[in-house]
Amino acid sequence: MSAAGTLTVVGLGPGDPRWLTPAAQQALAEATDLVGYGPYLDRVPPQPGQRRHASDNRVELERARFALDLATQGNRVAVVSGGDPGVFAMAAAVFEALDGEPAWRAIPITVEPGVTAMLAAAARVGAPLGGDFCAISLSDNLKPWAVIERRLQAALAADFVIALYNPISSARPWQLGAALEIAAAARGPETPVVFARAVGRAGEAITVARLAEAGGVAADMATLVLIGASTTRLMLRPGEPPYVYTPRRCEARP
How far apart are CA 231 and CA 249, in angstroms? Predict the structure, then answer.
């Protein structure tokens, strides 16, 4: 392996280029090779002489192995990821691939963080993550639904605000509805639920609903869903979108 070979996993943020960190911009500009899901690569401005290697969104582990192999050849590789690469994204895939091949462990690897979807969504509506919160992916491609269901029930019992990633797709049309039904059994009907679609990109749409009506709100894979805790508050404003926030203070529950 060439001593010059490196690999950087870069978080592109939710979409708005103003949310891309200077460190991430530098890593992208200095890379000889960009590796990633095609639509994410399209968000990176081209650089003269830079090579791009696009792949499908369901081949994360294969993509990581390809990138590591490129780095062993002496290339400066940037693996691009939407949002933050460590949140349900490519950083874990890279280290999973690394864990399976000791020969790659000499490659210098850096992870450049990005703004993840739940932070961008929360900023649009106020401060729903002001108290304790957790993030759960509803995708059952890599874990069984029974595991997701147990984690949802545990998070609801602990009264976390819950950020739901990968809520629904054409191949998984029912999981979000099931998750909202589980939430409705544990939280009051007035609990605020935020649906944040494509934050920072064309087509951005923010919908705030009460849990009792949340099942009727349209969502897709570009949507991040925030389910409030029992303490999360909805502040109505005449003629303006409501604010949603969770107080920092939490009293002991019986």
Answer: 9
Average pLDDT over residues 130-150: 96
CA 225 to chain centre: 11
Residue 61 domain boundaries: 6-115
pLDDT of residue 56: 85
Two structure tokens written together for 54: 């696009």
Structure confidence at residue 208 (pLDDT): 97
Q: Output phi, psi for 157, to 5 deg.
A: -65, -35
Q: Confirm whether 62 is domain-assigned.
A: yes
Q: Is residue 1 part of a domain?
A: no
pTM value?
0.92
CATH number at residue 228: 3.30.950.10
- The secondary element (H helix, E strand) that includes residue 190 is none
69: helix, coil or strand?
Answer: helix
**H or E segment to which residue 165 belongs:** strand 161-165
**Residue with the two structure tokens 């943020």:** 13
Q: Over the stretch 5-41, which tens digit does the pLDDT of each residue have? A: 999 999 999 989 999 999 999 999 999 999 999 999 9
Q: Give the span between the Cα atoms of 232 and 248, in whole angstroms.
A: 10
pLDDT above 90 (res 252):
no
Number of domains in the chain: 2
**Residue 124 structure tokens:** 């649009």
Strand order from edge to edge, sheet including 223-227: 133-137, 161-165, 223-227, 192-197, 205-210
Q: How far is it, in rounded angstroms, from Cα 200 to Cα 205?
A: 10
Please give the backbone phi and psi of residue 116, each rounded to the nearest 5 degrees, phi first: -85, 160
